[in-house]
Amino acid sequence: MRAVFCLTLLSLAGVGCGPQLPTAPADPAGCSGAACADDPLETAPPDDDQPGDDVDPCADMLATYPDATVCDGDHYVGIPTSTLSSSWTVHPVNDLSAMLECEVVTGRVEVHSDALSALAGLSSLRAVCGDLKLMGPPNHDLAPLSRLTHVGERLSVSYSSLASLHGLEQLVSVGKLDLRLLPDLVDLAPLAQLAHADEVVLADLHQLEDFATFPPGVTTVERLEVRDDEILLWGEPDPIKTLAGLDAITHVGQRLELDIVGDVDLSALGHVTVAGAMHLRLGNHSIAALHTADLSAVNRVVVEESPNLYSPLGLGSLGPSLQHLEFEETSIRSLDGLEGVTAIGTLRLHDNPCLENLNGLENLTQVGNLYITENLALPDTQLDALLDRVEVENTVVVDGNSTGGPDCD
Asked: Helix, strand, or coil here: 389?
C-alpha cells in the first residue's frame, strides 16, 4: 500500500450552522518571486477536532430552529480515550437514549461504538453545530438521522459496512463531507438535497463505479479529495475508473487531491477552476484531460508516486509564478507543457528515471530552491544549461542524475 498522504493544507473555514454559510475566498496569489520562502505542500494540518473559530457557530442555527430542544456541549459514545477532555459528555457504549430529546447540539457528536444496536437516540436531531462523526456505526442504516438538515463542521461516516446513506435525505448543508472506508456503499443518492459543503472527501468507496449520484447542488468547494489508496486492504476491488458525476463542481478554492490507483478518466474535471494546491498520485499514463481546467491560481503542485505518468501535459494553464513544483517517482520524459512558468519558489525533481530533458522550462528564470536528484536518464548537459540560465537564490542540490536510466520506450 502506498503511503497515505495526511489531510494537509486543511484550512477549515469557520463554518456556522445556517442554511447558507459563506466562506472566505482562498487567496489565489502565488509566490510573488522566487525568493519566497519554501513553504512545503506537506504542512501540518490543524487540529480537526477543534470546534469552529471565534464566531458563534450556532447563532444562525438557533435562529433557524428557535423552539428546538438544545443540548449544549460535546457528546461522545464509546470507550473514552486519554485525549478526551472533561468537557465531553460521555454516553454508554450501547446507549444513546439520553440524547433522544436533542434537536440542536451546540458542540460535537461522536459515535465510536460497534455495540450500539441502532442510532435511534439521534432521531430528533436537526442540527449539530460542530462535528458529527460516525465511526463504525451500526451496519443497518442511518434512518434515525432523517430529520438532520445541517452539520456546521464535519460530517464523517467511516469504517462501516453501510450500503446506503438512507436517512440523510434532508441534509442541506455541511462544513465538510467526509465519507471514507465504506466498501459496500453503492451510491450517494440520499445526499441529493445537499447544497453546501466547503470540503468534500470521498475515499475508498469501492462499490461506486462513478460519482453520478454526487449532489448536483455542490458546485463550489474549498477542498476536493478523491482517493482509493487503501484499496489493497480490501481484497483488491476495482479501482476508481472515472470521476464522472463530479462535473457539478466548478471551483476548488484551496486544494485538489487525487490519490487513485488506476488509470482514471479525469475529463469530469476538465472545466474546473482550481486555486491553491494540487496533489496528484495517479495510475494514469496521461493527465491531458486537465488541459481545459483553469489552473492559473494554483501555487503548489506535487505529482508523485505516479509511475505510469509519462507527461505533465495537462498542466499548461498553470500561472507564471509557483511556490512549489514537484515531480517524484513518475515516468515523465520532459516537462513539456510548463512553458508558461517563469518563477518557482521550490523546484523538486526526484527519482523520475525516464526524465531525459528539461524541455518545458525554457522560460524559467528564477528559482528559490532547486533539488534535482536521482533522475537517472537526465544528462549533465541539460542540468548545466538550466543552471546557466536560471537564477537560484538559495539552495541548490543536484545529485545522482545521468547515471543511465531504464528502457522507457
From this structure: helix
Q: Alpha-carbon distance 51 to 54, whole Å?
A: 10
Burial (CB count <10 Å: 0-12, 13-18, 19+), residue 90: middle
C-alpha torsion 64→69→71→72, nearest 10: 60
Q: Which residues contact 165 (CB under 8 A, 6 or more apart)?
A: 142, 157, 179, 185, 188, 189, 190, 191
Question: Could you tell me which of 103, 79, 73, 110 has the C-alpha nearest to residue 92?
Answer: 79
Break the chain into its structural domains and give their ranges: 48-217, 320-409
C-alpha 81: how far from chain center: 27
* Distance in angstroms (rounded) separating the CA atoms of residues 116 and 78: 9
- In CATH, what number does 48-217 get? 3.80.20
Of 130, 34, 8, which is closest to residue 344 (Cα–Cα)? Answer: 34
> Is-contact 166 191, C-beta < 8 A?
no
Which residues make Cβ contacts (< 8 Å) with residue 368, sequence separation at least 6?
31, 34, 35, 36, 37, 38, 344, 345, 346, 392, 393, 394
Beta carbons within 8 Å of 409's beta carbon, 6+ residues apart:
none
Alpha-carbon gap, residue 169 to 194, rounded angstroms = 8
CB atoms within 10 A of CB 346: 25
Mean pLDDT for back-to-back runs of 10 residues, the chain (409 residues): 30 33 33 43 42 62 90 84 74 82 94 77 94 77 94 91 92 95 90 96 87 95 88 57 92 95 92 97 94 97 96 96 98 96 98 96 97 96 95 96 80
Q: Using alpha carbons only, what angle is made at residue 177 by residues 247 and 87, rounded to the nearest 5 degrees?
A: 165
- The phi and psi torsions of 143 (rounded to 5 degrees) equal -50, -35
> Radius of gyration of the chain from Cα atoms?
23
For residues 332 and 359, is the Cβ–Cβ distance under 8 A?
Answer: no
Question: Please, are residues 182 and 201 in contact by the beta-carbon 8 Å criterion?
Answer: no
State pTM to two decimals: 0.83
Distance CA 333, CA 321 (A): 23
Report the sign of the C-alpha dihedral through residues 378, 2, 283, 155, in that order: negative
